[in-house]
Specification:
This protein has 412 residues and is α/β, with parallel strands linked by helices. It folds into two domains: 2-197, 3-Layer(aba) Sandwich (Rossmann fold); 205-397, Glycogen Phosphorylase B (Rossmann fold, 3-Layer(aba) Sandwich). It is 42% helix and 17% strand. It has helices spanning 20-30, 79-94, 96-103, 117-128, 142-148, 155-170, 182-187, 204-208, 216-227, 245-256, 275-284, 301-305, 328-335, 350-354, 365-376, 380-397, 400-410, and strands at 2-6, 34-40, 57-61, 64-69, 107-110, 131-136, 173-176, 195-197, 231-236, 264-269, 290-293, 310-314, 339-343, 357-360. The strands form two sheets. An eight-stranded mixed sheet has the order 3-4-2-1-5-6-7-8, with helices on both faces. Strands 11-10-9-12-13-14 form a six-stranded parallel sheet, with helices on both faces. A hairpin with a 2-residue loop joins strand 3 (57-61) and strand 4 (64-69). Helix 13 (328-335) packs across helix 16 (380-397). The protein is globular. Residues 16-201 form the Glycosyltransferase subfamily 4-like N-terminal domain.
Length: 412
């Protein structure tokens, strides 16, 4: 098939996330399909941006044809981001006739996190007489309403609501990463026969190869912790409000003053808009048991996690998670065979399903501290058994060869 994949934030191994579009597309290309990826030249989630002038630019990455549309940068979620969205969608809209002529798509996928790309994808699919797929990352406008306090009457929320309604009505297939969305989507008009659940996952290729050597500061920090007999609590990923790292630092403060917790070493690797705030906390509160390090390339993550005893992932206590969660970093933790401390209240819990760690209440520093102590006091062999259960769970359900096939099977 010829597949057009519209994802504003699509990344590559060289540029950074979002990785899901790349991994799915790579599997489809390996299966003999042709994929045209349409993405914006600027995305806040990428580590680097592609080099694009004032006109769209084509690039082939591992057999995937990328087309980058020039858009201006932005910070935060204000008017700059809205302008960036419309710059991208407007250019794809104007490019539709050429794409239909040159690519001859059989499938058009709208997958840009925000739902307004459904209008561009619908127009393209109708012109090409192709199947229309709406891929759901987050529920908009419900996510900005519940997470950021946006009013349901805000013009942007109303726009998202209209786009979501159109998507559920007009798409031939709806693919959701979130697993517990059936009741909500039915209430918004979706025929549930159209719905397929395809969560996030990992690429076995990233784990089959020898891990890239760790950057010197990360390798040194982990080696020192091992030399002095510390139990390493690791975090690798974005440093934003949804990741509940303030709660982790609160737990580190409790454990610093707890005789049972003094042998725990917290190593946080990543970047994000709260990084400076977290670094200030570490310095001002004298959290000598915490080390914060700059982000590492994705291909170094397996080497880092191999040196971690307990991997932390936390969430805010917000109602939106009742529809389920599909975190990339948790897949990495489980694939690395790490015991996981999961601080969450959600519609699903992969850690509990796999039996690969301990789940505690979200945004509760005492609960996180107690959970970490529980895992730290286990014998290393017992943590290893937990980790292997997580790895087996991911290999059975969450590898991209499996997920890419499930995605295309939904089109049948």
């Amino acid at each position: 098939m010829n597949i057009v994949y519209i994802n504003h934030y699509a990344g590559t191994p060289a540029l950074g996330m979002e990785f899901r579009p790349y991994y799915l597309a790579r599997e489809w290309v390996r299966s003999g399909h042709r994929v045209q990826m349409l993405a914006a030249s600027y995305s806040h989630v990428r580590a680097r941006q592609p080099e694009v002038g004032d006109k769209p630019k084509g690039e082939t990455v591992d057999g995937i044809a990328y087309r980058w549309y020039p858009t201006r940068g932005y910070q935060g979620n204000g008017l700059g981001r809205v302008r960036n969205i419309w710059e991208f969608l407007g250019q794809v809209w104007r490019d539709t006739a050429r794409i239909v002529r040159d690519v001859k798509p059989d499938v058009v996928i709208a997958s840009s996190t925000y739902p307004m790309d459904i209008w561009v994808a619908r127009r393209m699919a109708r012109k090409a007489k192709a199947k229309l797929v709406f891929e759901v990352h987050d529920l908009w406008p419900l996510s900005p309403i519940e997470l950021s306090g946006m009013s349901p009457k805000h013009p942007f929320a109303r726009l998202c609501f209209k786009a979501e309604s159109d998507a559920y009505r007009d798409a031939d297939v709806v693919v959701s990463m979130l697993p517990v969305v059936h009741t909500y989507m039915a209430s918004r008009g979706l025929d549930l026969d159209k719905l397929a659940i395809v969560p996030n996952g990992i690429s076995p290729d990233d784990w089959a190869a020898k891990p890239q050597p760790l950057r010197e500061d990360v390798a040194g920090t982990l080696a020192t912790a091992r030399t002095v007999g510390e139990t390493v609590v690791g975090y690798a990923g974005s440093m934003g409000e949804p990741n509940a790292l303030d709660t982790l630092l609160d737990a580190a403060a409790l454990l610093r003053d707890d005789p049972a917790g003094r042998k725990l070493r917290f190593v946080l690797v990543g970047d994000g808009h709260l990084r400076a705030h977290l670094k200030d906390r570490v310095r001002n509160e004298g959290l000598t048991n915490v080390r914060m390090l700059a982000p590492i390339p994705k291909l170094q993550v397996p080497a880092m996690l191999a040196q971690v005893d307990i991997a932390y992932i936390g969430w805010q206590r917000v109602p939106i998670y009742r529809f389920g969660i599909a975190p990339n970093k948790l897949m990495d933790y489980m694939m690395a065979g790490r015991a996981v401390l999961h601080s969450v209240e959600a519609g699903n819990d992969p850690v509990a399903e796999a039996g690969c760690g301990v789940t505690v209440a979200p945004q509760d520093a005492r609960a996180v501290a107690d959970g970490l102590l529980k895992l730290a006091q286990l014998a290393p062999a017992a943590r290893a058994v937990m980790g292997e259960r997580g790895r087996a769970f991911v290999l059975a359900r969450h590898t991209y060869p499996v997920l890419a096939k499930r995605f295309l099977d939904a089109l049948k």
